[in-house]
Amino acid sequence: MTRTRASKGSGDNGAMSSAGPRGEEPKRRRAFSAADKLAYLLAYEQAVERGEGGAYLRGEGLYSSLISEWRKQRDAGVLAGKPPGAKIGKLTAEQAEIARLRRENERLNKRLTTTETALDIMGKAHALLA
């Protein structure tokens, strides 16, 4: 089976444009300062509260993996106190452990609050039925 090219009257001569298959020049990789990362994190977390987190990421051209990495850096204190233009590297093992423990602590506190509320409701229901 052979494919035929579109006729010459369609405006497509079968050749690629000089700009390449994507039609534009390659974009430079973006670099984010510590202040930029903190601002994006704050705006993203506000958007998530409104249920618009995905739309925010698409609008800014960001990936959720960037947000996760920046959140780890923020929680470990890497983003705080850095002068503008200073390079922000990977977390040390100690900083990563601190960030993990903070996240776990926050998760467990939420679970405790939920459990206490449920027990309070159960106690009130038991008192009403007794």
Give a verbal description of the structure:
There is one protein chain. The chain has 130 residues and is mainly alpha-helical. It has one domain (30-129). Helices cover 56% and strands 0% of the residues. It has 4 helices and no strands. It starts with 33 loop residues before the first helix and ends with a helix. The model is unreliable at 4-11 (pLDDT under 50).
Strand-helix topology:
Layout: H1 34-49, H2 53-60, H3 64-75, H4 93-129
Helix pairs in contact: 1-2, 1-3, 3-4
**Count of individual helical segments:** 4
Low-confidence blocks of residues: 4-11
- Following the backbone from N to C, one meets helices and strands in this order, namely HHHH
> Oligomerization state of this entry?
single chain
By DSSP, the count of extended strands is: 0
Number of domains: 1
Give the biggest beta sheet: none
Q: How much helicity do the residues have?
A: 55-70%
| Portion in beta strands | under 5%
Let me know the average pLDDT.
Answer: 80
Question: What would you report as the Rg, rounded to the nearest angstrom?
Answer: 26 Å
* C-alpha termini separation: 82 Å
The shape, in one word, is elongated
In short:
This protein has helices spanning 34-49, 53-60, 64-75, 93-129. The protein is mostly helical.
Give keywords:
130 residues; mainly alpha
